Amino acid sequence: MIDFTLTEEQEAVRKLARDFAVNEMRPVARHYDEAEEFPWPIVEKAHELGLINALIPEEYGGVGADKLTECLIAEELFYGCAGMGTSLMANSLALTPIILAGTDEQKRRFLTPFTEKPIMASFCLTEPGAGSDAASLRTRAVRDGDHYILNGTKQFITNGSVASLYVVFATVNPELRHKGIIALVVERDTPGVSIGKVEHKMGQRASDTAQVVFEDVRVPVENRLGEEGEGWKIAMRTLDSSRPGIAASAVGIAQAAFEDAVKYAMERQQFGQPIANFQAIQFMLADMAIKIETARLAVWKAAWLWDRGQPSAKASSIAKAYATDIAMEVTTDAVQIFGGYGYTREFMVEKYMRDAKLMQIYEGTNQIQRLVIARHIFKEAM
Ligand code: COS
Sign (positive/negative) of CA torsion 232, 236, 238, 242? Predict the structure, then answer.
């Protein structure tokens, strides 16, 4: 049975997130983008409303939202502002390894504080020399009694300079590649943890992106998620789980650009009439609508599979690649419809276009998504 009806709770949370996006985020979106400032007041309000950390299970103080609900929230928050949206949603990525692989004690210790106060966590996989080829990471964890000594640098870490907790992927032996990877939970105030370069980005400038440096950091073995060698699978499962949310976020940016373009096309007069009367514009808007609708369906399918516990890696990658590619196309076309005005900071479409670009890159470039999809195609054909 296929049913696109949302539950009453899902409708309510979607409306809550939309109202928050329109009333709280949009009025300050330009400010945070230009100031490149971390939006703490927005984080605090979103936390009060339960719009962040929605995935934390009820037994640890959260609401235990399903993946589809999380995607509905992500779409709306990114409709409000993608930079702030990334700041708000990054905890989902960072806390998922704990939700997936933590013991009851680890979940209680690490997840519960997030339900009590507006604090941030970061997912630390990428390194200066290990991006798409994540299994080649070099951050080293050397066992010393009941601790690991952690050394290495993590790159492009969302919320890196504001987080109070890091989930760090490190290797006990680089020669083992993915089989030597472990996942460690590291608290910010552990001696030896510091912040390196903070990035200045093209778009999503309200989100914090920083290097996180670990120098002889002593991490208790009890902070390891899963067994030695299980870290890689925890990272991959986390990305399977988070990519529908990224795809939903891209749909939110595209929706914002589309609505602005429709409104502008109906108002803007050229040749004595609104440009919406011209088929050239109508077809562009129709194509935008087709892309947004189909991308949203791909998101819902991937989320639905995850929520049913069915294999979802391929669907997640399809949704991520498709939704983020169409977000780039839709926002670029929105700038085109605005013409010269679209290229100025007077209107938001230039921001949507800058913001959309990152969606094709982070949480696995769209080339990596295609690689994942292709591997599934051949596996299915065997
Ligand atoms: N779930 C569970 N296991 C998975 C998996 C998944 N989604 N994807 C791969 N694996 C397993 C494979 O089955 C294989 O296991 P075995 O050794 O038991 O056979 C192992 O992981 C290694 O897989 P593979 O050979 O495919 O690894 P590669 O080094 O070729 O890399 C990609 C695979 C490219 C998919 C991986 O490096 C990747 O996802 N890169 C992008 C990283 C990324 O998204 N970075 C963004 C940072 S987070 S913002």
Answer: positive
How far apart are the CA of 295 and the centre of ligand 1, in A?
24
Average pLDDT over residues 237-263: 97
Over residues 67-106, the pLDDT tens digits come to: 999 999 999 999 999 999 999 999 999 999 999 999 999 9
Mutate to test the pocket of ligand 1, among 126, 239, 365 (most ligand atoms within 8 A of CB): 239
What's the CA-to-centroid distance between 236 and ligand 1, angstroms?
6
Distance CA 212, CA 193 (A): 7
Residues noted as catalytic: 363
Q: How many residues does the chain have?
A: 382
Q: What is the pTM of this model?
A: 0.97
Residue 189 burial by CB count (10 A; 0-12/13-18/19+): exposed, middle or buried? exposed
- What CATH code is assigned to 122-228? 2.40.110.10
- Strand 193-198 and strand 181-187: pairing? unpaired
What is the arithmetic mean of pLDDT over 291-301? 98
pLDDT digits (tens, 9 = 90+) for 105-136: 999 999 999 999 999 999 999 999 999 999 99
The rounded radius of gyration (Å) of the Cα atoms in the chain is: 21
* CATH-assigned architecture of domain 232-381: Up-down Bundle (1.20)
Name residues contacting ligand 1 (CB within 6 A). Answer: 123, 125-126, 132-135, 178, 232-233, 236-237, 239-240, 313, 362-364, 368, 371-372
Residue 3 is predicted with a pLDDT of 86
- CATH architecture of the domain 8-119 equals Orthogonal Bundle (1.10)
